[in-house]
Structures are given as structure tokens and as C-alpha cells.
Amino acid sequence: MKRLLLVVVVVLVLLAGGAWWALSSIDFLVKTAVEHYGPDILGVPVKLAEVKISAQNGQGALRDLVIGNPAGYGSPQSVRVGNATLSVDPSTLTGDLVVVREISVVAPDITYELSTTSGKANLDVIQRNIENYLKRAAPQGESGKGDAPKSKGRKFIFERISIRNAKVAVTNPLLKGGSLSFTLPDIELRDLGKSSNGITPSQAAAIVASTLATRIATRALSTGQLLKRGTEGIKDTLRDFFKLQ
Known about the structure:
By secondary structure, this protein is an alpha+beta fold. It has helices spanning 2-24, 26-42, 122-137, 201-217, 223-227, 231-244; strands at residues 46-53, 59-67, 79-88, 97-106, 109-113, 155-164, 166-171, 179-184, 187-192. It is globular and about 50 Å long.
């Protein structure tokens, strides 16, 4: 009986120690997850300089998140987020369903590069990479579209995601290193995953990427239209286009 009691005590101590390590190491775990799974989901390099999340109140911040560009695109990166703040329900941090109360991204730098060969923008390629990842992650026989893949991994509810004052630079190889810039209207997404008892980070990324690509595309011309004119014509066309928006 004493031995059984001792075993139970040891197991409880180990569980408590594991829970403490998980909470105290959450910054490391998040940074590692972003840099490990990000490239597989997005199909481009992903780097995150720093993560700070308080296990006590769920408040946190991310610093210098850099998302690279697909192969064949000349810009060094597609998105750079200098700082972002987040708020997580601390009571859900160790559960299977994590509630993210808010993610706020302010003034990210976005490069919207139009390819002269494929006719596609870099963000469209990244969006397609995410969609392909979701198809691979879906159980056999499911398309990966619509409903969330029924995996046993941790799910998330994102109550609010906001992107404000995003700086977009539209570039094209024919601009010879130049670009035309504008500030994107603010984006706010609410209750992602709430109706389906949670979604995966890759599904949330697909929604954000699709929203960004759509909003930016409404203010950019297709490569085919631009290529009908010379370098100066491209600049003039883009300038005229953005004046009308």
C-alpha cells in the first residue's frame, strides 16, 4: 500500500512538473512551432525573432515575423511583421481547444510581387500552398475544403484578428527594382473556428491569406495588363489605378 501511494505521489509530481514546464516554456514552444511548421504550411521560409506570452494572464507579443517568398520571385520576403500583440485565454493554454481572444497586427510590410512568367502574384502562390497543405492534412477521402480536417491535434478559436495600416508594395521585374506603395484598408476577422469547435493554425492561415490576397488584388492590375505597356507605362498605369481607389 505504501509503495502504491509512493508511485501515485511520484506520478502526480511528474505531471505537475510537466505542466509547469509546458507553461514556463510556452515562448519556446510557440517560436519552435512557427518556424518548424510554418514553412511546410506556407511553402516558404518563416522566421520569428521572439515570442513573449504570459501563462498567468495570456497576454503576449511577437517580434520580427518574416515570411519569405516562393521560388522564382525576386523580393527577399513577402510579409514582415515588426510587432504583433496577442491575448489568449490562459485557462485554455494546456487544453485541446485554445481560445485566442485577439491577435493584433499593426503596420506590417507586405510585398505583392507580380511574376512576368506565371502571371501570378506571390501571395496567390502562398495561398495555393496553404490549400495544398490542407488537402494533404485532410483524412483520406475528404477534399480538405469546407469543413475542418477531423484530426486529433490541438484546435483553436480566434475571436478577433485585426490587421491595421498594412503597407503594401506592388512590384514587378519590369519595374527594375522599383515599386508602388499604398496602405491597405484595415482588416478584421472574428470568431474563426467558433462554429466548428475549433480550427487548426493552417486553416486560420488560409483564411487570413485569402482575405489579404483578395483585398490587395482589388487594388492591383494583372500582370497581363501591365505587360502590354513599357516600364514607364507600367508605372503610369499603376499610379493612375491607385489614384482612382
